[in-house]
């Protein structure tokens, strides 16, 4: 009996540790004060996304409060396993599937009425970037399903990171409902500039 109890405790400890690890940052460690979330790809709300991997997010204080300057302001990174290249059209497809699924599922859970056919995304290469940089500007018409469900114009930039030592591609997103003239974008750019793929992720440890 003692051995059985010991074995059960060991199994429970391993299971708990595994679940805890799933919710700890493995990619996006900053800003540490911003609320954190991690989930596997494709997400449950957008099963049509054709990538496997993980996504980590950091939500600015005020992200879910409509009357704040940081409403719908957050950063997230998607780790795409087995992906060597990704195109402008691939990114647009990702965004559409992602936000149609997110808005639809969240509106249903919160009993909001929205028209997902109104969700749109435009993606263009960012002007002024160097040949070595892969950064895209995006503009999305979505819905504020975490608040009152009203339409939201989401401004976004996506940076592609492709470490050579692994068969993975990383997409780093910075996004806000505020215009890019707002000071919050200075903060978003600083977060992106400081971000680095952890060494354990690209085989340099």
Structure overview:
The protein has three helices and seven strands. The protein is an alpha+beta fold and 205 residues long. The protein is globular, with a radius of gyration of 19 Å.
Mean pLDDT, to the nearest integer, reads: 87
- In total, how many domains does the architecture comprise? 1
Termini separation comes to: 43 Å
Strand order of the largest sheet: 1-2-3-7-6-5-4
Q: Per the principal axes of the C-alpha atoms, what is the gross shape? A: globular
Strand residue percentage = 25-35%
Binned, the helix content reads 25-40%
SS elements, strand count: 7
Integer-rounded radius of gyration: 19 Å
Question: Which structural class do you get from the secondary structure elements?
Answer: alpha+beta
| pLDDT < 50 runs, ≥5 residues | 1-21, 201-205
What summary fits the major beta sheet? 7 strands, antiparallel
Our count of helices gives 3
| H and E order | HEEEHEEEEH
How are the secondary structure elements laid out?
Elements: H1 2-22, E1 35-41, E2 53-59, E3 74-81, H2 88-109, E4 120-125, E5 135-143, E6 151-161, E7 168-176, H3 184-194
List the main descriptive attributes of the protein structure presented here.
7-stranded antiparallel beta sheet; 7 strands; 3 helices; alpha+beta; 205 residues; 28% strand; globular
């Amino acid at each position: 009996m003692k051995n059985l109890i010991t074995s059960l405790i060991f199994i429970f400890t391993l299971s708990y540790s595994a679940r805890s690890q799933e919710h700890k940052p493995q990619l996006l460690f900053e800003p540490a004060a911003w609320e954190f979330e991690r989930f596997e790809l494709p997400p449950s709300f957008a099963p049509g996304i054709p990538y496997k991997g993980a996504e980590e997010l950091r939500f600015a204080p005020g992200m879910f409060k409509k009357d704040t300057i940081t409403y719908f302001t957050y950063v997230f990174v998607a780790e795409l396993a087995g992906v060597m290249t990704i195109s402008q059209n691939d990114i647009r497809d990702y965004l559409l599937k992602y936000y149609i699924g997110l808005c639809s599922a969240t509106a249903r859970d919160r009993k909001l009425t929205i028209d997902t056919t109104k969700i749109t995304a435009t993606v263009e290469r960012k002007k002024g970037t160097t040949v070595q940089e892969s950064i895209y500007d995006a503009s999305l018409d979505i819905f504020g399903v975490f608040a009152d469900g009203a339409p939201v114009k989401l401004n976004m930039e996506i940076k592609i990171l492709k470490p050579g030592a692994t068969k993975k591609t990383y997409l780093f997103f910075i996004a806000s409902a505020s215009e890019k003239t707002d000071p919050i974008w200075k903060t978003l750019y600083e977060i992106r500039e400081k971000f680095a793929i952890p060494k354990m992720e690209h085989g340099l440890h």
